[in-house]
């Protein structure tokens, strides 16, 4: 094997009559960060739990570094770091003590433990808190220790289940910075998320899943090329909610508007044909509809458009 790898072959999970995951075929190879994107309930956590043998597949098989998780669990998971559903840490322990327990369970040689613990605390930017009691930590700080626990045996493969979920904006930013740094250390990171900006900021490639089915897997650049339609796009902020569907149709009827989507009660997304002059005319007509337009901006992420379209096609 030339590098770290993760593979799912016809991976399926059914709970009674409900199919949580439907014949997932996905192969990731090499040192990079892959975002596993999808709405809540799409099958992301179910997939990660089968990849780590926390639940058994109804059909199919998983491989980590070419080793079957189902046939040889211990060897397959030996070089994998896992963070799923943010486990709690004993509040009376310090990070150094908690990581020492994990290092022991993971079989890190006693002569190497101190150095490995110092290394992973540095990676998650918690070295200054190494000997403080975890019970007084913020949720974001605890999550950084959880990530350190997944790294303590220096794995090649890292599986993270929505690592920034539930954190405040500062905590989310800190976790994203950590994942960016982890990419530099020759690891294959598979990170589930339902946050588009998180995937755009951190990941090299993206796999989109919805209702248990894989919709696509590719680099972010290729996804944009394959699915974007080339029309200029603007987000329109409103001072009051647009609750009347008839008014939305008025916007869609403006000459040059290719599509009009209400993203939030006070935010529209418009695609239009033409260049700057056409845009100027369109915006003038839009203001003339007296919808309370108070801001105009480019979308933060082309991926958001693609995501919304692909999910909508499955409805």
Describe this structure in words.
The chain has 315 residues and is an alpha/beta fold. It folds into 2 domains: 5-223, Rossmann fold; 228-313, Alpha-Beta Plaits, CATH 3.30.70.980. Helices cover 36% and strands 29% of the residues. It is built from 11 helices and 14 strands. A 6-stranded mixed beta sheet has the order 6-7-8-3-9-10, with helices on both faces. It starts with a strand and ends with a helix. The mean pLDDT is 90.
In a nutshell, what does this entry contain?
This protein has 315 residues and is of the alpha/beta class. It has 11 helices and 14 strands. The chain folds into 2 domains: 219 residues, Rossmann fold (3-Layer(aba) Sandwich), CATH 3.40.50.300; 86 residues, 2-Layer Sandwich (Alpha-Beta Plaits), CATH 3.30.70.
């Amino acid at each position: 094997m030339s590098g770290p790898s993760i593979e799912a072959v016809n991976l399926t999970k059914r709970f009674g009559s409900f199919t949580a995951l439907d014949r997932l075929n996905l192969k990731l190879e090499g040192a990079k960060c892959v975002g596993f994107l999808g709405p809540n309930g799409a099958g992301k956590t179910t997939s990660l739990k089968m990849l780590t043998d926390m639940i058994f597949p109804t059909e199919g098989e998983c491989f980590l570094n070419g080793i079957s998780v189902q046939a040889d669990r211990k060897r397959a998971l030996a070089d994998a770091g896992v963070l799923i559903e943010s486990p709690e840490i004993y509040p009376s322990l310090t990070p150094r003590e908690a990581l020492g327990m994990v290092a022991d369970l993971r079989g890190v040689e006693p002569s190497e433990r101190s150095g490995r613990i110092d290394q992973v605390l540095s990676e998650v930017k918690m070295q200054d808190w190494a000997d403080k009691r975890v019970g007084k930590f913020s949720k974001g700080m605890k999550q950084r220790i959880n990530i350190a626990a997944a790294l303590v045996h220096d794995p090649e493969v890292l599986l993270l289940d929505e690592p920034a979920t539930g954190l405040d904006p500062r905590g989310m930013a800190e976790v994203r910075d950590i994942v960016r740094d982890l990419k530099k250390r020759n690891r294959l990171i598979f990170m589930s998320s339902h946050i588009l900006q998180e995937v755009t900021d951190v990941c090299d490639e993206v796999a989109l899943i919805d209702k248990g089915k894989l919709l696509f897997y590719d680099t972010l650049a290729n996804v944009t090329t394959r699915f974007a339609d080339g029309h200029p796009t603007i987000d329109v902020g409103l001072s009051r909610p647009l609750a009347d569907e008839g008014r939305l149709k008025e916007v869609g009827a403006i000459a040059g508007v290719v599509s009009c989507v209400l993203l939030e009660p006070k935010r529209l997304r418009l695609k239009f044909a033409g260049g700057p002059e056409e845009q100027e005319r369109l915006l003038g007509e839009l203001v003339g509809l007296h919808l309370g337009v108070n801001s105009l901006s480019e979308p933060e992420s082309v991926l958001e458009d693609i995501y919304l379209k692909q999910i909508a096609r499955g409805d």
